[in-house]
Design brief:
The chain is an alpha+beta fold. Helices cover 44% and strands 20% of the residues. The protein binds zinc ion. InterPro entries: MULE_transposase_dom, Transposase_MuDR.
Length: 448
């Protein structure tokens, strides 16, 4: 061990002393602290400077840059130290401690009641670092019973890549971030670990760490289906007037479809204009499926959620089931609404069967995208594509039948056969303002 006694800027007295022999070396934490201080150019408590790797039990940080992991070096420090989170918290903190101090360990014993870890250099170099912790039966917490926190193996290095950076460690670091931003990508986790923790991890560990964190936030997805019955009861009990229905497969009681409309949303919808947007989107969970949704518009021109359905796929049967529940709600309110939707085949058939004669407008954006796909820029050029879309817009927004006819004639000439086919499959009552059944909407709105 080298001691520096800095008497002035020009001369330095050096005293070499073996702390291990003299018994003055007090363990990892002190050594690491001293090293950090020396790297920062500060004079530590004993003005100690370490030249790592030449001394047993010493360690060195890869970077002097302050990192969020710096505090981990204090995670394991004395016999009697308690971990309220039990074995799980102890194992996690042990990993972080080893990672920050710069060594690997192996479990000599590992279960819910006790954990024994030894330095991975025990076999090769006979390192005596060892920790033993067990559960306190009265409190359920984990307590360090014995600890030899001195390494006798060759100096350790806090490296950017470590076997101790396991997916569980990643999950513990990102669980709050993923709760706030579930779409956080594994590549973002990799970059953040590099920037804030000075760690390099593989894509797999980032991905799996994210999956574990999601599990912690949302729980096990298979178990969550089992909670649906409890969830229905809770909704009915706490949100009076709600409509919930869980349909299970006969014989095996496996959940098949779920419908919910909250009492608060039903009450508020009576003050919304009579419009409902019907759409579906993919569920990205482990079990996939589709989320069906009926949304209105609030007074701030924002979405107003009215009803949700969870089904396996967007079929006519599932749409019919969803719309029948929606119909029971609307009939109870005595309201007729105008529907907006894309032209999903199953939805169109179900809509005709459940809400015959109710005004139904096709979403202009979807129609425009359909038209654009028939005139790709590569084959027809942007000029023609823009002209066709512009003329179709004139047809859709024409106020009078005459105005519609002029725009349509021009569209057919410009767009030729592709437009003719496209238009022939569309009923103008469902997309052209001049023919839409606005009378029906206004009449009903007056009634409400
Ligand atoms: Zn060791």
């Amino acid at each position: 061990m080298a001691y520096l006694s800095i008497s002035n800027a020009k001369t330095v007295d050096i005293l070499v002393k073996d702390l291990l022999v003299s018994g003055e070396y007090s363990g990892d934490v002190c050594a690491t602290k001293e090293l950090i201080s020396s790297e920062k150019g500060e004079s530590s408590c004993s003005s100690t400077v370490e030249d790592r790797n030449e001394f047993l039990g010493m360690s060195k940080r890869a970077s002097a840059k302050p990192l969020l992991s710096n505090e981990w070096e204090m995670y394991i420090h004395h016999v009697g130290q308690k971990f309220d989170g039990g074995a799980e918290e102890f194992r996690l903190k042990l990993c972080k401690y080893a990672l920050e101090v710069g060594f690997n360990f192996l479990y000599a014993g590992n279960d819910k009641k006790r954990v024994i870890a030894v330095c991975s250099n025990k076999k090769l170099e006979g390192c005596s670092w060892r920790v033993y912790a067990s559960r306190c039966e009265s409190t359920g917490c984990f307590v360090i019973r014995t600890l030899n926190n001195v390494h006798t193996c060759v100096g350790r290095i806090r490296e950017s890549k470590s076997k101790m950076m396991r997916s569980r460690v990643v999950a513990s670091l990102f669980v709050d971030r993923i709760r706030a931003k579930p779409e956080l990508k594994p590549i973002e986790i990799i970059h953040e670990l590099k920037d804030y923790y000075g760690m390099d991890i593989s894509y797999y560990h980032a991905w799996f760490g994210k999956e574990l964190a999601k599990l912690g936030v949302h729980g096990d997805e298979s178990k969550s289906f089992n909670e649906l019955v409890w969830y229905m009861d809770a909704v009915n009990e706490t949100n009076i007037g709600s409509l919930c229905e869980l349909e299970c497969e006969a014989g095996i009681n496996r959940s098949r479809r779920f419908f919910v409309s909250f009492g608060g949303c039903l009450a508020g919808f009576q003050y919304c204009i009579p419009l409902l947007f019907i759409d579906a989107t993919f569920l990205k969970s482990k079990y996939k499926g589709q989320l069906l949704c009926a949304s209105g518009k609030n007074g701030n021109q924002g979405f107003y959620p009215l009803a949700f359905g969870v089904v396996d796929s967007e079929t006519e049967e599932n749409w019919t089931w969803f719309l029948q529940h929606l119909a029971s709600i609307l009939l109870l309110m005595g309201r007729m609404v105008t529907f907006f939707s894309d032209r999903n085949h199953g939805l169109l058939n179900a809509m005709g069967a459940v809400f015959p004669g109710w005004p139904h407008s096709y979403c202009y954006y979807h129609l425009k995208q359909n038209l654009i796909s028939k005139y790709p820029k590569s084959g027809y050029g942007k000029l023609l594509q823009d002209r066709v879309v512009n003329l179709f817009s004139k047809c859709a927004y024409a106020v009078t039948e005459e105005e519609f006819k002029v725009a349509m004639d021009e569209l057919v000439v410009v767009g030729s056969s592709k437009v003719k086919t496209f238009i022939s499959e569309l009923s103008r009552d469902h997309y052209a303002k001049a023919f839409f059944s606005k009378e029906c909407v206004m009449e009903r709105w007056q009634i409400v």
